[in-house]
User: What shape does this take?
Amino acid sequence: MTCGDLRPTHVGKKVVLSGWVHRSRNLGAMVFVDLRDRYGITQIIFDPNISPEAVYEASKELKHEYVIRIEGEIVMRKSPNHKIPTGLIEVQAHDLSVLSEANVPPFAIADDTIDVHEDLRLRYRYLDMRRGEILPNLVMRHKAMQVVRHALTEDGFIEVSTPVLSKSTPEGSRDYLVPSRVHPEKFYALPQSPQMFKQILMVGGLDKYFQIAACCRDEDLRADRQPEHHQIDMEMSFATQEELFPIIENLVGRVFHECKGVELAPPFRRMTHREAMERYGTDKPDLRFEMEIVDATDLAEKTSSALFTESISSGGVVRGLNLKGGARLSRKEIESYQQLVSQFGFKGIAWIKSQEDGLQGAIAKFIEEEERQKWIDRFEMEIGDCLMIIAGEKKRLLQALDQLRRRLGKDFDLIDSSRYEPLWVVDFPLFMWNEEEDRMESETHPFTSPHPDDLELLEKDPLAVRSMGYDLVVNGYEIGSGSQRIHDREVQKRVFSVLGLEDEEVRDRFGFFVEALGFGTPPHLGIGLGLDRLIMILIGSENIKDVIAFPKNHWAQDLMTGAPSEVYEEQLQELAIKIEQSVVGQN
Amino acid sequence: MTCGDLRPTHVGKKVVLSGWVHRSRNLGAMVFVDLRDRYGITQIIFDPNISPEAVYEASKELKHEYVIRIEGEIVMRKSPNHKIPTGLIEVQAHDLSVLSEANVPPFAIADDTIDVHEDLRLRYRYLDMRRGEILPNLVMRHKAMQVVRHALTEDGFIEVSTPVLSKSTPEGSRDYLVPSRVHPEKFYALPQSPQMFKQILMVGGLDKYFQIAACCRDEDLRADRQPEHHQIDMEMSFATQEELFPIIENLVGRVFHECKGVELAPPFRRMTHREAMERYGTDKPDLRFEMEIVDATDLAEKTSSALFTESISSGGVVRGLNLKGGARLSRKEIESYQQLVSQFGFKGIAWIKSQEDGLQGAIAKFIEEEERQKWIDRFEMEIGDCLMIIAGEKKRLLQALDQLRRRLGKDFDLIDSSRYEPLWVVDFPLFMWNEEEDRMESETHPFTSPHPDDLELLEKDPLAVRSMGYDLVVNGYEIGSGSQRIHDREVQKRVFSVLGLEDEEVRDRFGFFVEALGFGTPPHLGIGLGLDRLIMILIGSENIKDVIAFPKNHWAQDLMTGAPSEVYEEQLQELAIKIEQSVVGQN
Assistant: This one.
């Protein structure tokens, strides 16, 4: 029996309950204790007329968070509490054992309205868990993991554990290294993903693999990153996108159904990378609301606005959003969004309101009378709308409009938070140009297959080559990324060559892997879905720490255990490593 | 359709099959190809009278391990192969695509009778997988993992992932360390087990936890060890052994049932640690056969054998085994077991045969006539049996007799390999004496609860104190170990004190953990089951590498990837560590 179970039907029965003292009130004539466990809260009453004296006396000494065990009889409550499921009954205690005393907690457990600083919550994660927010998230995560494994097992996938102590993979992020004691001067790397291992399983003849894998990346942390995250990782051979997508749609659909009661109807929408960029300025558009990016470069060219025409003549574009009903915004309110776009290097937002008496706004006067209707038509403007327009270099402009669109979506309540809009973004570019290092790079990794229709462009116009890569996006968040891999040695060689990788470098960086691919590689493809992100979407949180039992803080520290921490000199000696006296300077 | 699916009922149908060229025979008039995938082998026939010419010509060029795709018609086979399920049919190929060519493999895939050196198998693990031994083991492992999670989920347990980047736990083995880039001079440790995290989850109010966790220990490797292994890890609060054991018996029982079709009837046998040591010389007895250790110290004392009496007078014991039917062994055969016991420091085995004409053997003459029947009765000897007896220090003697018993069990076919004998070994000692370091140590870890009946012995006679620890043993292998933990602060302090741990040291080594236990700890207990070991027992292998997709070799190397390996100087600079010029000397 738990503290969440008892109902009026149990009245008259004896019960044993254990849990934590959530609240305790000594009313003089009686002691009331709210007893708490993971399942709920039950009121315990210590009545000197019913409880033995020793029990009653002991009950007066109970303090917050003591762990106790009581025996008693279930009775109806005189003043029922309709806010909790057990609120109609209470338990008259006949016996009491204190199982464990408790120090005074550094923050209140019972009052979850108090905002506790995140550092303190992380430092005392176990007390934070008792406050009731984290444990249900972990239960949801548990449920999602079981659904994932169940669905994939039904589809014939085999769960394989790949090594923790492994070798660097060419994923592009920084590796966490593990010095080897047995082999001085050598290091393992923690896996950034099981990418190579899963492809090698395909080479080995396992045709359907999955794993919920811990992946470690030593990146500088952003709000939604952790040094380690979990990936629902899978791969299959002798198959195509058209076979993989329904499997993933079923998988994700079942998670949403069983964890959230939400139906995601397959097949999910698909959009090319190019289309997503043009319409939403991002490869992970939030489709829960409209307000697409509209191109007005041709119209802007005909205005007398120097802002527009100068941008265009130096190769820029003019695009904007139509904020429905935005005409009621004051100039000041509109300008509050200037700051957002200024982060991308834009001086300002040009805005045009559609009022009863025509187009308004500083920029409107530069538009010829006969051109105005074209603007109205292009942006599908109605009276009361407000355009927000930026002019400049296309790539940055799209980034800025994506951010502006997301912000407006939130600020103007355009997003139905009960909606879930999954989307496949397909036909990603195969390469991208690394401006800093002045060289060609893979968009994901060098084993992603080029689109077969673009093979002849590989050397001629590599940046125009589409890949067989795809992302799964939900509500504006990327939750998965994958691709068809290269299984043809000649194609692989051509891709390495475009990347400027010499044979020797290839051998150095992933020689064993390329060698493996040479022994008969089946066509194969796969995907990795971010488990943490998926749970965040399910619970509606934007803080990844909410879905991880023991998260690290922004500085990759575990405030509870104190990791990372200093170690004994002997440990380093055994590993034959020395700490370098800091050259970057001690803070 | 896979290469394992087709049967005579499919004859006349068209089929598309993909796979690897397992064997290829050009008979001049026709080409036969055995096409292989994970599910089986199907014979493909390229007949110039049926296949288009280009297809037929291409089929002549097919080499071992090429990946191909064929289309064709299913026909009955003229010369059926009854050894394989698809042996009654074959496929007449109409079309052929070579999906991927293959280099000549370093060992034959098709002929699995050839013994390939383990190093070569590990180096080309993906080719080893194609030989057919490893993949079925991985499928079994997959199945076992799903059964485990399913059973525990049904019992209300919640799967929680604990950190990979964590802090040293006091498990006693050497940690793998991970230097922190963000915090120079500080290190994470890879978890040796989630012990502290799972106990902290109990403190946090999660009452039922489990996880299949990767655990890393930087030990010198033995045949059956790997630097990382997987543990079915669980913990529950407000419960006792009597509640935990049936859960584990159900769990293990279901794994055996669903993976192996074997029924393990609950409840499993129980034996105290003391009894196991006395009867079998080990805390993990193999109960599939009898031949218990018999104490004959009192009888030996009355003999005139100096070997016996001198041992006894210097504090030793005399114990032995009765090998049923062993009297047919020659002196030479018996002496072949001398070597085994000599490893434990014993000069020899004293043996006594029971023949038609009485007891035989060098030692027999030292036994008085009237004492002989006592020996016969004590060891339950029958005509034809042979006693093997050792005299000496008890601890080593028990170790030797355990090894001798296991060896005799194998050599004399006493073990029914279809039997599975699970056993709970309970009431382990709480402490052990570390002779090398001349100090008291925990048998497992300092959070194991003392047996409540032995609490008053804690300071007086610590080595006599039983713990609430237990092991699960199957067929002579430990597959799990766990305990009731201490939840009472006073008891915890007393245990630390017996261990000679000062407050400061406690704070240093596991301060955060002891602090957590101070905020209201429920009674809790748990267990960790070795997944790898469990699968080894299921498949009947004694090599842990058989149940791991990508195992390390004896020197903790991954021969396939080359891990551990050298890293770039810049990586070490970022981590602010330096390789110490080897002081132990390069080999």
User: Anything to note?
Assistant: Chain A has 18 helices and 23 strands.
